[in-house]
Amino acid sequence: HYFIQSNLRMYEELPAKVIVPADFGIENLNSKLHGNITLKLEGYSELLVNSIILSLNSPVFVDLFRKEDSRVLDMREYTPSVVRLFMESLYTGRITIQKHDLRDFSKLASTFKVAWLILKCHDYYMKLLENVGDDDVDDMFLLFEEACSIKIHIGDTVYIEKVLEKIKGSKYKLSEFIERYTNVGYLSFSKAQVDLIVELDPPDYTVFLRIIRKNVSKNQLFDWISRQLLKQLDLVKCMELDLTLYNEVIDLILKKTNDISRQDKTLVNQLHKDATAKLKAKTDPKVKTITRSDTVSFASRALKSLKRMGSKTELKLLPSKYHVFQCYDIMDDLPFDDFLDILSLSSEVKSLFMMLESVDMFGAWEKFTDESLKKVISTIQTRGWTKIPRAFLSSLYWLNECPDKLKWIKECPALCSDTNHTKMISDEITTPKKFLLEKKVHKFIFPRPRTTNCVILPTQCGILVQITPFGKETSEKFKLEVVQDPALYTEHKMHYHRHIVIPERMHFVVEMFNDGQEDGINMEISWARGTPQFSDPGEGLGSKIRWGGWQWGDTHKARLMCYYDNTQ
């Protein structure tokens, strides 16, 4: 640390004499003599760099070296080859990238605020766009994706406008481009990408109906991307342009899709009902309709009324009919602040785990601000909730898609604590299908409570959790249950401290992961993700299961985990 600070003092005396970009000598990269900072790269590799060279190029590195005690920087979230290219540019003052590296490279330039590199990336992008031909489909897709990424993450619309100009000037119509683009990357789209594509508003607006029809027909599933696309569309406009196609898509989703969930069926019916009512009101002004937005408005008014009551008397918990699971479609359209308020007041949301799982479920982290964090902290204090472990945050899928936000939330001491919970992992690792369909007792070894005089070996203390299997006729009966029967504990050579280790202090998650991986994704299936759907209705034990918005096969593994609140 002293060495880094000494170098920084040297750097502060240099700005008037050194102007970047400059050639500091590529031979000094990864030099044991000059490399006083170690970059940790993905795959256990490392790169030695010099703090002065990095600081001359980037004010972000200056702040990092000034604040961090460590001489190690974690760069594992970036592609190793692109990190090396990025460092080579800082050392040589030249940019040598390939077009397939453009996104990651420009992301590094923007993240570390290397001004001259950002300009170089801009020039490189514009040159690629100028030279791309009508038949260079892959290049056009790449440039469009980069423009979308910049619009979504930075808010700059210049690139997307330039790309659209290029597309409109080509031999392809905008709707044809959208259709071809979605054919390539449909299942990998993010929510923000789907919303942005709809915002393009092509003249042939029914292209979106054709995209939904093709993907629902192909997969026999109403996936979350089709769901988001349908929600964002102006369905009245779709009906006016091609009523036959519109009715075909709605009928396909509701009648010919395998195991569509109740929530999705309710949503589609409501969207169709609202669109039909709006179209009727448009043609007949005398007709007064109550639409989905009116329902959302009602929920918001009820919330405000409840909050006024709470301010005058003691805090009143929101009735369970406004529980996020029961109002799946309504919640998704509420303003984010109202959504957080409902989570903080709902009697069905019993812990900070459940609250943050809900935010993750709706992929709403881009709306999570300083004020949101203050609201969550206030809820922790008001409801008497316990802080959560950082490992739980790392398991939330959509939060991991926002690494800066994940790091920021993890650093909040009012929200996180790694000492409040004991993390227990079941000794059973199985496939998602078996996890759902086989009656199984999962065993959790638990540290012996210090307040007892237990004479049994500590390794034999623990809990047994039984899963009631899922079935087509008994989908609502699928549950996790802490076993109370002493005979079953005797059979498993275990001892349960029933008066100390109680179910109310447990939060279970199901982690899904590929075989061989150590860490999985918390699919938040335990309460907010809805009923699993099988891809093969004939067998009921299809090789793939749609659960938590994803498809899982036999190559995936499922593991039950428990976070136990030990603060009491």
Query: Structural class of the secondary elements?
Result: alpha+beta
Quick one: overall form? globular
Parts with pLDDT < 50 across at least 5 consecutive residues: 1-8, 10-16, 287-292, 309-330, 537-542
According to DSSP, the number of beta strands is 13
What percentage of amino acids are in beta strands? 5-15%
Oligomer: single chain
From the alpha-carbon coordinates, what is the Rg to the nearest angstrom?
Answer: 27 Å
Distance between the termini: 40 Å
What is the count of DSSP helices, taking H or I runs of 4+ residues?
Answer: 25
Query: In which order are the strands of the major sheet placed?
Result: 4-13-8-9
**What does the average pLDDT come to?**
77
Query: How much helical structure, as a percent, in the residues?
Result: 40-55%
Biggest sheet, open or closed, and with what strands and sense? Answer: 4 strands, antiparallel
Written account of the structure:
- The chain has 568 residues and is α+β, with helices and mostly antiparallel strands.
- It is 47% helix and 12% strand.
- It contains 25 helices and 13 strands.
- The strands form four sheets. Strands 4-13-8-9 form a four-stranded antiparallel β-sheet. The chain has a three-stranded mixed β-sheet with strand order 2-1-3. The protein has a three-stranded antiparallel β-sheet with strand order 5-6-7.
- A hairpin with a 2-residue loop joins strand 11 and strand 12 (550-552).
- Helix 1 (2-12) packs across helix 2, helix 9 (174-185) runs parallel beside helix 11 and helix 13 (235-241) crosses helix 14.
- The longest helix is centred in the middle third of the chain and has 22 residues, at 262-283.
- The radius of gyration is 27 Å and the shape is globular.
